[in-house]
Amino acid sequence: MTVNGLAGWSESSFTADGKTLPVFRQGTGPGVVIVHEIPGITPTVQQFAQDVVDSGFTVVMPSLFGTPGDPMNVWTVAKSVARVCISSEFANLALNTTSPITTWLRALAADLHAELGGPGVGALGMCATGGFALAMMVDPSVVAPVLSQPSMPFAVTPARGRDLNLSPADLDSVKARVAAGCPVLGLRYSGDPAVGGRFDTLRRELGDGFVAVELPGRKHGVLTEDRDEPSVQRVLEFFHDRLDG
C-alpha cells in the first residue's frame, strides 16, 4: 500500500496537547519513534526507518512538516525551513527553551509504550529535530534516546550553537534520567557547522552518560542523505541493548 508516497506504511493520526498530526507506522516488536529531519519524511528518512523495522522494531513516524515522500532538494528544504521558522511549535532561535511540539511527541511515545509494554521506547531525532529526543526523555517511557546531528536552535551564533533546545527544568530532568542509568547516543560529522558546539555541551552536562559517535568531514545527514552504514548499525545496536526484553 502507498500512502502519500510511503509504500508499506499505514497512516493514522494522533491527538495530544490540542494537536492532531499524521503518523506513519510499520513493524512489530519494541517501539521506536523516529522524528524526521528537514524537509520531512524523505526517501532516505524512510529507508532508515525501514532498516529499524527490519531489525525487529515497531516504528512510528510522525509528520511534523513537509510532504511525506518528497525528496530533499532546494525547494522542499526552503519550504520546510520557512515552516519551522514561523511556527511557534519550534524554538528555532530561542536559548534555554524546549520546543513546544515535544510535549506532543512525549505523549506519542508514552502512548506507544502503553500499547507495546516492555522496558520503554526509543526516540530518535535528526537535524532540526535532533534535540527533540532529549526533551522526549523527560517522559520515563523513553529509554533509548538518539540525537543525530542536532541543529536547533539554529547555530547562527556560538551561544545558539551550544544550546540544547531545553528549558532549565527539562535539562535537570534529563540529567536526572542519565544519572539514573539512561544513556544518550549522539551522532554527527565533526565538521558539520549546523551542530555547533552542542556535543561539548552534552559531554559537560551528561558526562559519561553521553555516548558520542563523531565522524570525520563536513557532511550532515549521518543516517540519511550522507548515510554512514556503521553509524546505522550502532543505532540499531543501541535500540536492541535498551529495548529488548
TrEMBL record:
Chain ranges of the Dienelactone hydrolase domain: 29-141
Keyword field contains Hydrolase: yes
Database matches in SUPFAM superfamilies: alpha/beta-Hydrolases
Assigned keywords, A-Z: Hydrolase
GO MF terms held by the record: hydrolase activity
Gene3D superfamilies reported for this sequence: alpha/beta hydrolase
UniProt xrefs under InterPro entries: AB_hydrolase_fold (IPR029058), Dienelactn_hydro (IPR002925)
Keyword Mitochondrion attributed: no
Protein name as annotated: Dienelactone hydrolase
Source organism per UniProt: Nocardioides marmorisolisilvae
